[in-house]
Amino acid sequence: QVQLVESGGGLVQAGGSLRLSCAASGSFFSIANMGWYRRPPGKQRELVALITDGDSTNYADSVKGRFTISRDNAKNTVYLQMNNLKPDDTAVYYCNAKGLVALSRGFGDYWGQGTQVTVSS
Which residues have a Cβ under 8 Å from the Cβ of 7 and sit 6 or more positions away? Predict the structure, then answer.
């Protein structure tokens, strides 16, 4: 299995920055795409940023120019640098990864427990 643990969430004022980290551990052959999702209060979960194992990236329009996703494959870790945070960024942020844990099963979808990001104005 793949265990994903997020860190770096917290409280910050509007205009501030946070850096989220998500480390993958467990028994797996490889990790493919990794991404960050978020669920604002009272809203549906949405994709924030995605990065492939080839370092191609994709961002939600609402965070383009402010957030940067990156990964360190040697550490099986994905990061989300969040700059110029806005109150609308307040949400629980979830790490997602596509992991190969058994050749017979192909890649599976794994999720972290979530980390709270609160942006005050």
Answer: 20, 21, 22, 23, 115
